[in-house]
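Notebook, bench 3.
Goal today: get a predicted structure for Malonyl-[acyl-carrier protein] O-methyltransferase from Pseudomonas abietaniphila so we can plan the truncation constructs. The sequence was checked against the plasmid map this morning, with no discrepancies at the termini. Length recorded as 286 residues. Pasting the sequence as submitted so the record is complete.
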Amino acid sequence: MSLVMTDLSHCAVLKAVKQQQATTQRHLPDKRQVAASFSKAAASYDSVADLQRAVGSELMSRLPDITPARWLDLGSGTGYFSRVLEKRFPDSQGIALDIAEGMLHHARPLGGAQHYVAGDAENLPLRDASVELMFSSLAVQWCSDFAAVLSEANRVLQPGGVFGLASLCVGTLYELRDSWQAVDGMVHVNRFREFDDYQRLCAASGLQVRSLDVLPHVLHYPDVRSLTHELKALGAHNINPGRPGGLTGRARIQALIEAYEAFRQEKGLPATYQVVYAVLEKPAAV
């Protein structure tokens, strides 16, 4: 599918985007719950963050050859990639921003950025045209208003500035989702946007799309408990609206284990993440 929709007027595109966005927002978690969940996971996050490291490294490799005077690590978490950015751009000034204050408290003593800011990607506490590079790895999938994220990126980037992001789309953890569906039909797995939504929103953002694609990343686990333990340690366990409350009984857990076994491969039980990679650029001033 083309990244630029040529068969609809601009107004029609915006209307379609808003309709899709409204549907998506009803199914995404409240940002206060996101902040609380990741703050709680700050101490355990790095011990199980293999996927996050792999995805962030891939995103880093996709950035164009630029030397920003100031960069922003959006959704900086424990600051791992703030430290990578500091090494890549040693003469630049860095801002680490996250909605989870617990993550910032954990990251600050480890260094990497000059400024640590508690803030919301949908309403950045930064001046217009104040950064040359925005880097965001596996954070914006938790934002219900991705159009607002893109609008804020357009606002805070200098002309010619770059926004590199990695996110997740529908199809992520489908093995776990389908296994739970076979057990009770309830929402146990976080929902994510369709890739088409990313395409439409990026095309309508006013930013130039340098690249936008989705790649699967598959991890393997010896058993279901290892997967669910890792999700909890990451703070990425189910925080969707409509999730079941209370404890999960032994019978349902056993049923989940049996259902998931149908997916077993030689390497173990697979967990597929559909990772969206995008590199966007603010048009240069004329």
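The longest strand covers residues 208-221. The longest helix spans residues 10-25.
Flagging this for group meeting.
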